[in-house]
Amino acid sequence: MFLQLMTASTPVLGQTETTLYNMLMGVWWEKEGQTELSTKMYSDGFQQFDNMSEPRYRKLTALATAVLVSTGRPEILEKLSTDIFNMWLDVFGELKEADERRAEEAG
Predict the structure, then answer these.
(1) pLDDT tens-digit series, residues 57-70
(2) What's the DSSP call for residue 29?
(3) By three-state DSSP, how is residue 27 classified?
(4) Mind listing the pLDDT tens digit for each residue in 86-95?
(5) How is the chain split into domains, by residue range?
(6) Distance of alpha carbon 74 from its chain centroid, rounded?
(7) Quick one: pLDDT at residue 41?
(8) Distance between CA atoms of 48 and 25, rounded to whole angstroms?
(9) What is the DSSP code (8-state) at residue 51?
């Protein structure tokens, strides 16, 4: 459904799908690379991944990114070996720490 919404948004926003996916990924990583449209769209509602302090939002973002990777879109796969893997490693590290804390408290 989300992919259909992205496709349907292209004529309304006057942007290509590539631009919209780049803007979507820019929400998390490329503050300096955002266009005027993306800045207006995301300035109030979204934070970059590194600035998210709630672990559950970081996990949810990692899961959403995994779903985006599964689309095979080149704009997303381009970030796989850098930004996306780094995000996943951060979240996996947080999960490991939480498991270790639970084990210490239980045992």
Answers:
(1) 889 889 989 999 99
(2) S
(3) coil
(4) 889 989 999 9
(5) 2-106
(6) 15
(7) 46
(8) 10
(9) G
Eight-state DSSP code of residue 84: I
Residue 97: which H helix or E strand, with range? helix 85-106
Q: Which two tokens stand for residue 43?
A: 């300035």
Q: What share of the chain is helix, strand, coil (3-state, %, to 5)?
A: 75, 0, 25
CA dihedral 52→27→25→91, nearest 10 degrees, is 0
Q: How far apart are CA 26 and CA 33, in angstroms?
A: 7
**Distance (Å, whole) CA 93 – CA 22:** 27
Q: Determine the average pLDDT of the residues in 33-56.
A: 57
Q: What is the mean pLDDT of residues 28-52?
A: 54
* Helix 55-69 × helix 85-106 angle, to 10°: 140
pTM of the full structure: 0.71
Q: How far apart are CA 75 and CA 100, in angstroms?
A: 36
Sign of CA dihedral 65, 35, 74, 10: positive
When computed from its CA atoms, the radius of gyration of the chain, rounded to whole angstroms, is 16
Instruction: Indicate the SS3 state at residue 44.
Output: coil
